[in-house]
Amino acid sequence: MPTVSRKIERLINLTIALLATKRYLTKSEIFRTVEGYEGSAETKERMFERDKDDLRTLGIKIEVGSFDPLFADEAGYRIHSDAYQLNLGDISSTEVSLLSLAAQAWEGAALADVAQSAILKLNSIGIPADSFDLPAISPKLSNSSEELKIVTAAIAESDYLHFSYLSADLVVQPRTVIPFSLSTKSGFWYIGAVDQDVQEMRTFRVDRIHGKIEVKENKEAFELPVEQLKSVIENEAPEGYATIDIRKGKGHSLRLNAISVEDLGEWDQVKVPIFGLEALASQVLWHGDDAFVQAPEQLRGLIIHQLEMLVTTHG
Amino acid sequence: MVKNISAPLARTARLLDLVPFLNTHQGIALKDLAQQFDVSTAQMSSDLTTLWMCGLPGYTPLELMDLEFESGFVTIRNAPTLAKPRSISFDEGVALILGLDLLSSSISDDRQDLIASIDRLKAKLSEKIGLPISLKAQPKSSPAISSVISEALSKNIYLHIKYHALYRDEITTRTIQPIELVENQEDQYLRAFCFTAGAMRDFRVDRIIEAEKVIDRPETKNSSTNSAPIEFTISFKAPSRDVIERFGIDYANVAKSLQLTSYSQQWVERSVMASGGGVELTKPLNIRSELASKAQLILDRYKAL
Fold this sequence. Notes:
The complex is a heterodimer of chains A (315) and B (305).
Chain A: H1 2-20, E1 25-26, H2 27-33, H3 41-57, E2 63-65, E3 76-78, H4 81-84, H5 93-104, H6 112-123, H7 147-157, E4 160-166, E5 172-185, E6 188-195, E7 200-205, E8 209-216, H8 226-234, E9 240-247, H9 252-255, E10 260-263, E11 267-274, H10 277-286, E12 291-295, H11 297-314
Antiparallel strand pairs in A: 1-3, 2-3, 4-5, 4-8, 5-6, 6-7, 9-11, 9-12, 10-11
Helix pairs in contact in A: 5-6, 10-11
Chain B: H1 7-24, E1 28-29, H2 30-36, H3 41-52, E2 66-70, E3 73-77, H4 90-106, H5 112-129, H6 144-155, E4 158-165, E5 170-184, E6 187-194, E7 199-204, E8 208-214, E9 230-236, H7 241-246, E10 258-262, H8 265-274, E11 279-283, H9 285-304
Antiparallel strand pairs in B: 1-3, 2-3, 4-5, 4-8, 5-6, 6-7, 9-10, 9-11
């Protein structure tokens, strides 16, 4: 379609003209010099407004200003090359390779196309990748739903997300949050967000969201609760420590968290931090007769209670 | 930002990105260029033709970009304004930072130089896209293979692995169902049912080269006596999110008594045990009674102390 091509040509010519200029270009200058602006004044005006919106949609920032500050005359436009161009400063071949590997981690996952476009840009810097010095690894991010795209867009705009979330006691509750982070751990995706009902930070596991995520535009400024964020990180201290006997060569997942190990012959005695009694009790029970809690009494009590229930239901 | 970009806009973006790419890949074959941008060669030819008409105001040959196709090879000259690649978008930045984070935790500790490079890149990118510094305090992802294994263990799913058999010095591909991680002296082993061998096998975790999840239940190639799946039935006593996630059950099915299958009796036993009073194993009866006596035995030990 020739008209479509003409529009594309015009958008590119406008980008080039606004990038090349040192001073602001007025609308009339643009209409006069940039190829493609034709028709009545009104038509040109409409074209230009749409073109500006289109370039902004592509992430190109157009500065608006007046080139003579003393006269509040016609507004001018330009694109600052620092904002337009990718500038990562000094960057080595190895670093380019690391970035390529980082993008490849998305292969087949939610942001694969975005990662691919980032790679094209990186490849255009003109620094060849040098993976010679890198270990032969290619970690992959676990495949995730398309929802991640909605979440990243909402983080960028500080928009509201509205969804149904499965709570620990198995109730599906509606939540409205402003997301600010996205992370992955052990194959699960987590959204860090400020829950609007309680105005506190919460973490949500993406696969525990039921149904669709709805986005609602947020027109107010959002400030990240940095102080809260700090205190949450500092409060990651355990509730206490448990002393557990573990059979030699067994109980690997418990040993992973151990802060000390004492050799008792056939058994080892390990000390592990407690992050939630219920979770630790369940983990100990998973290991059957290979793990045996010595302390604290509270954890022993919980496990004994669980075992009694197991015996009653299955006996 | 992920907006649904219209086709003409997507094409505009591609043309803008083509110029810097050509600038650093002078003389690239048209076919390769099309492949890099994931379009047909016909589309790429048409893109280049459009680009030919663009340049600085004036639009005389002096101001237009010079593109040259010579027997299927492309070069570009006189395009200084668009010579540098466009800056990274927010989405692209997020994708790269998360990818770098994963990479960082997959690199062994003796490569502190690379880990430092990754941290520098992450900081640069965060600054570029305006991500708050505090984001870096988010939990790091665990090494790729371990995370796949732990997910497989917790969700009772199958894996397709590439395994380096050291003593025979060959790499084999297998489909397995992970059952548990065991430690033997210095090393960590993954105990699993191997569908390729049709039997239980232990795999040294550091010799698993690749691991990916398999959705469908694999077929056992070799028949073996212990390869039949175990059918078991559970009902919920006090369902919690932990319990339904452990058995990989949909929230909507919680009220029902469910019949499930597993290749590992151990996995069934352990999962029921770990659920405490939350779940009742109703079938098979032999595992049920074994479970009861095991729980009684452990209970006796606790009470004896």
